[in-house]
Write a structure and sequence with these properties.
The structure is a homodimer. In chain A, a hairpin with a 5-residue loop joins strand 18 (about 355-360) and strand 19 (about 365-370). By secondary structure, chain A is of the alpha+beta class. Helices cover about 35% and strands about 30% of the residues of chain A. The first copy, chain A, has helices at about 15-25, 40-60, 75, 80-85, 110-120, 165-185, 235-240, 265-270, 300-315, 325-335, 345-350, 375-400, 405-415, 430-435, and strands spanning about 25-30, 35-40, 65, 70, 90-95, 100-105, 130-140, 155-165, 195, 210-215, 220-230, 240-245, 250, 255-260, 290-295, 320, 340-345, 355-360, 365-370, 400, 420-425, 440-450, 465-470. In chain A, the strands form 6 sheets. Chain A has a 7-stranded mixed β-sheet with strand order 3-7-8-14-11-10-9, sandwiched between helices. A 5-stranded mixed β-sheet of chain A has the order 16-15-17-18-19, with helices on both faces. Chain A starts with 12 loop residues before the first helix and ends with a strand. Chains A and B meet through strand 2, helix 2, strand 3, strand 4 and strand 5 of A and strand 2, helix 2, strand 3, strand 4 and strand 5 of B. Strand 5 of chain A pairs antiparallel with strand 5 of chain B, so a sheet runs across the interface.
Chain lengths: ~475, ~475
């Protein structure tokens, strides 16, 4: 059923996106410029994401902490590259309790500085290491253009900050966290991602290198979805984080940081949703099944309640829509909100001991025996998770290209954009040349070596890297 | 065992408190004035509190949302009493991304304004009501003196904000949430509380009235621990939140808000802990049982692992201390960190098929048969929860007094402070007179009526209220 509050994707993808966000009550604009309100449905999705990821972090040995939201300017400035990267985006607190502050405070844009300051006081010997800390919080970056979940002045995220006694261990951590992100995206969000290293230009300010997971939206635009940074000793030297190593000598620590944000909700929408509203992978949907009595009759409701109990007892998050709206209205509402499976209980079906089950992603309707409803629902949820991943994977495969000339890239990006594999010499000049083609940027370096035959797609000099390129959100 | 990092309570209660906070790695001071770092142990406690309370809220029908952290000054000013109450405590953002802002933004000190602004846009008819929303976030109030968990510039809390179509329903909600807080304090934190209404002077800025739960610390100082506010139509008139009622007329909504903060961790410490460190009620302890192999021997460790598995399978959060420290060190560490039950597995006991079990609150040691370890642990945890509540209740009873003269109050507050029941005429003058006695303030009004014989403890005029008074943190 077409939802008349939602622009269709072929007419205007950007308008479709914000229409879905609003129609599914995920977020609303606030009276505060550049900040969005997480409405109940949107925040429930964030809680679901948070609880799964948090479990994965804890299983990997991480603990949560909470650092102050304020960073004194002098503390922020200790690591030069970081402040250069973030100063233009900081929000500054300059007054507190009717007094002008002696030193202005930044609202945390990211917390490397605070964690480093804390580690410098608490890490003494190799026995204290590693420290594997994470925090869930909001951060502020003074963006000019904002879009719900994709770019806003305040956003919710997690930031892991770890400190190690050897570079090997820290580098392993950087890769391990990237793997966790990849696994979470693929297994739970049903979003296939590619992984690689950011170029010097695109890496995190202050990092030795940045690893990234990159996803491809259904319209072929790519989205940087999670990053994991290796800092080496950059921060430990700037913030004086020393430990006594096993040889009884002072040594600077090795650090990492890694983060994903509420942007994941944007990725979910743009990967899976359709012109009728939100489509959610069952494993991440806060509510997996809605049961709708077609009429407000006692015998129908009692069947709904039995089904609901059976599903809940199997760990499926189902609910009954008891509201006094029409059945059609309830169907439409469940549809726009992306409830994966809908079970309709009507008098005609019930006369044959049957109910109707409808999958949100395919709209497939099936009339099934009442006895089969639990098994069928479980199967549908599993199948839907798998199908949604495969559909996204097919889109990614279809939109992944090899190119050796700028004309090819231009042709791809103008007609059916996606990920383009192309070789690159490593110069920023050539990187910027690519950007002239509809803003195409390097997504990640997937291989680096001394190639014998491969040439840079821009300057035709010897290539040093194989890079995936794409137009970014 | 005395912990030499901890000042004893009889020497200096305030120093004891901060020593426990630091020794148990709950919090650390940061480089940001007035802000504390939640260390891993402290944040784990907050997560435990949060998950239980959040479950109670959701069971009661609440949903979580997230409002922006910034409040434009003009929006904050719409309700006059609120801004008068909070303006002197606000932190102000005046610069963003290298530019001076046209209007300064407050860091949320509380979010009535943002919720009201949101409700004014989204509530249309009585069918949209009630809205039962809550958010978990940090807030900032520019306090001068700060103490970890009790008073700090940034703190973590939850704030519920609900909107209703009748005053009755909103008042019921105000009371219902107070009951939930009381239940949480008594059942989980093992802290008995008294409840009542705040005086006009002590109520929340902008509220019609404020209900409160008040706890008594072991030294007799009282702590305001949670508040629930009834707003009537004050905010709905200021922020224009109208709905069409069942008679098809426009009507202003009725609102509530309610909150508890990380101050609960302070209450936990000051109610239950001792000179050896933290003591935690088992229901709130992130880790309930530590199993310590007395020596690093394979047969001991394999017994530890069997015990651990049995406990985990019963839903008890136990862990084995595998570290290469001495057994004595491990005992002391578990003690200072407040692990409720310790199981020691040593070669001598094990030769008799026995282990030793030690309760943190009483230090009771018992040698028990290996077969009994799971049952005994469960019993100890249950008993400890109950005993800790009763111990705190006894302290509260012992320190609850009736007084009819200021001399009596003075005597009580100087010698063995606590809660004092005394009648009051209702004038602010008399309230301030009480304050001259070591800062004694009204905690809450527990009864109001036209008394025949009772007189105000200060001015001796006819009393209007029975009030509990106390010295506050």
């Amino acid at each position: 059923m077409k939802n008349d509050k939602i622009t269709t994707r072929d007419v205007d993808f950007a308008a479709w996106y914000t229409d879905v966000v609003k129609a599914a009550h995920l977020a609303d604009y606030s009276s505060v410029k550049g900040c969005t309100i997480f409405e109940a449905n949107g925040y429930a999705l964030w809680e679901r994401i948070q609880s799964i990821l948090d479990g994965m972090f804890k299983e990997a040995g991480h603990q949560n902490v909470y650092m102050p939201v304020f960073i004194p300017e002098s503390l922020l400035k200790k690591e030069g590259e970081l402040i250069n990267g973030f100063a233009p985006e900081c929000a500054w607190i300059t007054e507190g309790g009717n007094n002008k502050l002696e030193e202005r405070l930044a609202f945390r844009p990211t917390s490397e500085t605070l964690f480093s300051d804390y580690y410098s006081k608490t890490v003494k010997t190799y026995r204290d290491l590693p420290k594997l800390y994470n925090q869930w919080c909001s951060v502020v970056r003074w963006e000019k253009e904002t879009r719900p979940f994709l770019r806003s002045r305040e956003f919710l995220w997690q930031e892991g900050h770890t400190v190690h006694s050897t570079s090997d261990e820290a580098e392993m951590e950087t890769h391990r966290m990237l793997d966790i992100y990849k696994r979470f995206f693929e297994e739970y969000l049903a979003i296939p991602v590619i992984t690689g290293r950011k170029t010097e230009k695109e890496k995190f300010a202050g990092a030795e290198y940045t690893l990234t997971i990159e996803a491809l939206m259904q319209n072929g635009i790519s989205l940087q979805s999670g990053t994991s940074h290796y800092f080496g000793q950059k921060f430990s030297k700037a913030y004086d984080i020393k430990f006594i190593n096993k040889n009884n000598e002072f040594e600077y620590c090795y650090q990492t940081s890694w983060g994903v944000s509420n942007r994941m909700i944007g990725a979910l929408i743009m990967t899976h949703s359709d012109d009728r509203g939100l489509v959610l992978p069952p494993k991440i949907a806060p509510k997996q099944v809605v049961i709708v009595p077609i009429k407000n009759e006692e015998n129908l409701i009692s069947v709904c309640e039995k089904i609901n109990e059976s599903l809940l007892s199997k760990g499926i998050t189902s609910y009954i829509d008891y509201s006094d709206k029409s059945a059609g209205f309830k169907f439409a509402e469940a549809e726009v909100n992306g409830i994966p499976v809908r079970i309709e209980v009507g008098p005609r079906d019930l006369a044959n001991n049957e109910v109707t089950i409808v999958r949100r992603d395919t709209s497939e309707r099936e009339v099934i025996k009442l006895n089969d409803v639990v098994n069928k629902t479980i199967n549908d949820l599993d199948k839907m998770q798998e199908d949604m991943y495969n559909k996204a994977l097919n889109n990614l495969k279809e939109r992944t290209y090899d190119a050796t000339t700028l004309e090819e890239v231009k042709d791809i990006m103008e007609n059916k954009p996606g990920f383009v594999n192309a070789y690159w010499c490593g110069s920023e000049e050539c990187e910027l040349k690519m950007k002239e083609i509809k803003g195409t940027k390097s997504r990640c370096i997937v291989e680096s070596k001394e190639y014998e035959h491969e040439k840079c797609i821009v300057c035709n000099k010897n290539a040093k890297h194989k890079v995936v390129w794409g137009i970014q959100y």
